[in-house]
Amino acid sequence: MPACRVTITSVKTAAVGSGRRDRAGRAYRYEETARFITDLVDNGTLIPGARVPSLREITRQRRVSLSTALQAYRALEDRGVLQARPQSGFYVAKRAPILLEAPAISKPPARPTTVAVSGVVPKFLEYAGDPNLLPLGCAIPDAELLAAGRLDRFLARAARAKGVDYNKYTAPKGDPRLRREIARRALRWGQVLSPEDIVITCGCTEALVLALKVVSRPGDTIAIESPTYFGFLQVLEALDLRALELPTDAKSGVDLAALARALEATPVKACLFASSFNNPLGCTMSDERKRAVLELLAEHRVPLIEDDIYGDIYFGDDRPRPFMAMDPPGTIYCSSFSKTIAPGYRVGWIVPGRYMARVLDHKFALTMCGPALPQAALADFLSSGGYDSHLRRVRRTFRENIDRMMRTIDRTFPRGTRVSRPDGGFVLWLELPKPLASRELFEAALKKGICFVPGDVFSTSGRYANCLRVSCGSIWHPRIERGLETLGALAGTLLARRPRGASRR
Amino acid sequence: MPACRVTITSVKTAAVGSGRRDRAGRAYRYEETARFITDLVDNGTLIPGARVPSLREITRQRRVSLSTALQAYRALEDRGVLQARPQSGFYVAKRAPILLEAPAISKPPARPTTVAVSGVVPKFLEYAGDPNLLPLGCAIPDAELLAAGRLDRFLARAARAKGVDYNKYTAPKGDPRLRREIARRALRWGQVLSPEDIVITCGCTEALVLALKVVSRPGDTIAIESPTYFGFLQVLEALDLRALELPTDAKSGVDLAALARALEATPVKACLFASSFNNPLGCTMSDERKRAVLELLAEHRVPLIEDDIYGDIYFGDDRPRPFMAMDPPGTIYCSSFSKTIAPGYRVGWIVPGRYMARVLDHKFALTMCGPALPQAALADFLSSGGYDSHLRRVRRTFRENIDRMMRTIDRTFPRGTRVSRPDGGFVLWLELPKPLASRELFEAALKKGICFVPGDVFSTSGRYANCLRVSCGSIWHPRIERGLETLGALAGTLLARRPRGASRR
């Protein structure tokens, strides 16, 4: 192994893990200080090798006792964030760069595939919802992180104050106030939307179903990224659609040349792409590539359905622009609040553009309308202005989580493991050294109380058997670090047993 | 006209309408007394011609002042419920029996029809939701009637107490506590259901979509009652299914001989029938007829999808048993809380029997799961025991409404008008004398601020142009009585203008 890689033994497992809390759920004082320093390191204010404030300085700045400050610095030393230099003080550790390679571009077959993933997904949802399992499976944010948004108080208030008025079917497009708030938020990427352009749906899932229903008929072919969110596959199967999986790079997204060839060779009825931070790869196309995609699609008169569910969870300075912002004809935009504030509320939306009338017909046919009070509560919450600060907190947490998990994976998974490096969202995609099968790892991990999603679920052509997706949506905790370490060790053991097993690091 | 029919002039419009309330929303004392007497009349305790308690008696019994009792009796006299006989006291008015005939059995074409109702329904939903229109359009119960159930307080409490725990995706089948409560309620018709037999859906609409998805493929034919709920037609169209409309009697339901012929002649993939109180006809099959239907279907191996959404709103002594209670193989049961307590909550359910696994797959694909807190609130509400007393109140209100509206229709609509006589639910189906077109009446009524649903919307073969559905879901109010009177007068005027117009009463 390369000398600069951090090995298991070189980082002591944090005895006092980050995120320690007392019984009332408050973070220990020393953890607040540790967090403060970690934030400065993570956001680049304190670069590797830099001297951090002395214990006396931090005592004054943070108004903590000397022993609290010392406890914080010791914890950060344990976690490999800081290094103590005798007679000199504490410095930001020169962390080994993460050397895990990114997954190679995918190579799915260049022909449409009948989708058959039935039965698989509900099973994984059950595992993902099992509170006894380590939550690396389900891609929803930690309840505690969401609670800080206080959306539930808005719902309680709405139920008390407006319960009678709202106990009826909503307008066909959904709560007008909520649609206005959603329209306002499109200004962030410089787009003017009207509340009348938007239809509220039962999560992003229903938005996608409506979009696919209005652009396709049973038997048609839809082009998708590969790997792709298993929920997309489930939808395609339910609507009797065929999938054409496109080669996709973990950084730059769909391969443009492959898309061009596919559009020439196959009667593609629509494309279904993530707007940003594709689940599970984390890839985002640049604005230039997005424009190139739209030009190609316009040339072939193929509509684009985009899923922007992760768009607000960006780690860079600017929110990525959705395809819709480039004002193309025939693009249908889908999103929801499930990944940022309200997975339990099931509120998504669709901007169907020219397909509005048909979307409304189908919306009425499939679910008529959504519950009224959760929509009202979300509208109240959004107009209260609390959403943006909540989003900042969520983004910071996920960025830190991803960094921590990558480091843990780096030091505990077998050599040859590749991992995605998303600039947003909260999932990681791991490619294990072949012939390691993630299903085998899954069974072994379940026995240890650890859940993730095996890679084959993200393809309909039998690919990614050596891959897996882990969710980084939970607030960081030693339990998660230990779980990942266990997973890495399990992977190593399984690999060693294989005939062509690669050497263990 | 027959001499015994009550004419417009023989009943004075109630100057002090029923349901008068003071500013705090409490019914006036005299109204409580009037209601007490009306209930005794409506439930048959006091028959026409019977002497009602004297003013002194009622004063003692109800603990009201003599002037309150007198005001109540005068109001009831105004409303035609009581008659005063000089020197003798008050008697129950010998009301003219309602002579309106029931609609004749429908005669739809005996071949499957492509369904094309798109665009029509969302428009009607918008009218139905317009608070400026008289609410005879939308078949949802009055908000005030629902408010008495206090479900919203359960939601507010759940949001406060369990908001964090419930801000995640529910189990694939939905909230287990809610499913347990729903299973318990099946005991009322003597059936043993397990919570595991039930999947929570986004209203009854999604339940029907799931049922149809798992028993049919695009292009298949589904047999339905005729007329049928326009929402069914919208669903059939969205799923690319064809409709075979069956002759249906306003009292006894689907014509069995016609069903037998249809099953012989047409490859029917499934039947979609109401369990009871079909919307819009109000018909309910007897247990014997239900069994005969099931035998026929078993013989042809055709599954039955039943919609029991009105089942709890029965006016007789016993709740009608759904088809499912007869334990047939291949029956899929659908229902929801929308008609009794929670239209705004969008909580329905499906009991898919042998189709469970496929229903779960499709549920995940279409909407994944429903919002968690409304389900939790409903579970709390049901287990609190408040639902049954709420249902009794709802049933009594709707029974009274239907009686009142039939009397108003009887005295104000043109001769030859036929009207359904449902034993449950809260809609009436009117057949106007031909050539009166209900669309024409609809346009004229809208201008007067009155909304209903024209009959052609309930068929996909262009029938029922002279019919309409009126909802009796609102708490009775002089505004509704006046609206119906206006509607009857409008119908008369339009009919008189027609070349072959029947004579005006």
Could you describe the 3D structure shown?
By secondary structure, chain A is α/β, with parallel strands linked by helices. Among the domains of chain A are: 8-92, Arc Repressor Mutant, subunit A (Orthogonal Bundle), CATH 1.10.10.10; 150-387, Aspartate Aminotransferase, domain 2, CATH 3.40.640. Chain A has 16 helices and 17 strands. In chain A, strands 3, 5, 6, 7, 8, 9, 10, 11 and 12 form a 9-stranded mixed β-sheet that branches. In chain A, strands 13-14-17-16 form a 4-stranded antiparallel β-sheet, covered by helices on one side. Chain A has a two-stranded antiparallel sheet with strand order 1-2. In chain A, strand 13 and strand 14 form a beta hairpin. In chain A, helix 2 (55-62) packs across helix 3 (66-78) and helix 14 runs parallel beside helix 16. The longest helix of chain A is centred in the last third of the chain and has 27 residues, at 386-412. The first copy, chain A, is globular. The N and C termini of chain A lie close together (7 Å). Mean pLDDT of chain A is 88; it is low at 1-25 and 501-505. The interface between A and B is large, with 70 and 70 residues.
Using brief descriptors, characterize the structure shown.
disordered C terminus, nine-stranded mixed sheet, 505 residues, globular, four-stranded antiparallel sheet, Arc Repressor Mutant, subunit A, 14% strand, homodimer, disordered N terminus, alpha/beta, Aspartate Aminotransferase, domain 2
